[in-house]
Amino acid sequence: MNRRSRDDRGQVLSSLVAVLAVVAIVGGLLVLFGTRGNDSVADSGKPAASPTPKPSPKPSAPVSSAPPAEPSSTPPPVEPSAPTSVTPSGQPSAPPSAPASIPVTERPAVEVYNNTPRKGLAEDVSVRARQAGWIVTGKDNWHGKIVASTVYFPAGMQAEANQLARDLGIGRTKDALDNMKKDRLTVILTTDYAG
């Protein structure tokens, strides 16, 4: 009888170890797949920890002995700003004005993802991209936090990303996230997309 109770304890212990192993595996999978598509610091709209850029020296304004001018009742004209993109350094930069169009034969593939509750948005934007001469290889939903509609580009494809952003009416480009393919552009649409 004593031998049987030891066997029962051994079975309980090995069953407990098996249950803990399964829980650890499921937890690991939840972490792996639960974070897929979520923002990283690179997409939170906040700059990643990097050295602080040094400000460029600005010329100082000459000191004037004239009395200050009377304020005008007419506000100065406001010029529309161009859509901005983000350079690899994380600093926004405006795309060049009136750049030459990327030839259709030199354009990379594009994937379009919908990160909104609006049904069919990825399909609609895919059609628009094809009409502008882009090859769309995939479209789907995106699950995660994206600050604004963005064209993500791998290394060496920033000019193409800027062109695609102009063609689709998207005002933001960024370096591709780690979980994105490195041979194509990735478009993620958020609720700010007006197209």
Topology:
Layout: H1 2-34, E1 85-86, E2 92-93, E3 109-114, H2 121-131, E4 135-141, E5 150-153, H3 158-168, E6 173-175, E7 184-189
Parallel strand pairs: 3-4, 3-7, 5-6
Antiparallel strand pairs: 1-2, 5-7
What does this structure look like?
The structure is a single chain. Mean pLDDT is 72; it is low at 35-42 and 44-98. The chain has two domains: 1-32; 84-195, Alpha-Beta Plaits (2-Layer Sandwich), CATH 3.30.70. It has helices at residues 2-34, 121-131, 158-168; strands at 85-86, 92-93, 109-114, 135-141, 150-153, 173-175, 184-189. The protein has a five-stranded mixed sheet, covered by helices on one side. A two-stranded antiparallel ribbon has the order 1-2. The longest helix has 33 residues, at 2-34. With 195 residues, it is an alpha/beta fold. The protein starts with a helix and ends in a 6-residue tail after the last strand. Strand 3 (109-114), helix 2 and strand 4 form a beta-alpha-beta unit. Helices cover 28% and strands 15% of the residues.
Key attributes of the depicted protein:
28% helix, 7 strands, five-stranded mixed beta sheet, two-stranded antiparallel ribbon, 195 residues, alpha/beta, elongated, Alpha-Beta Plaits
CATH class of the largest domain: Alpha Beta
Name the structural class: alpha/beta
In the CATH classification, which architecture of the largest domain applies?
A: 2-Layer Sandwich
* Largest sheet geometry: 5 strands, mixed
Radius of gyration: 27 Å
Total of DSSP H or I helical runs spanning 4+ residues: 3
| Multimeric status of the protein | single chain
How would you state the average pLDDT, rounded?
A: 72
Q: How much helical structure, as a percent, in the residues?
A: 25-40%
In total, the number of domains comes to: 2
Low-confidence stretches: 35-42, 44-98
Taken as a percent bin, the fraction of beta residues is 15-25%
Work out the number of β strands: 7
Distance between the termini: 77 Å
**CATH fold descriptor of the largest domain:** Alpha-Beta Plaits
Gross geometry: elongated
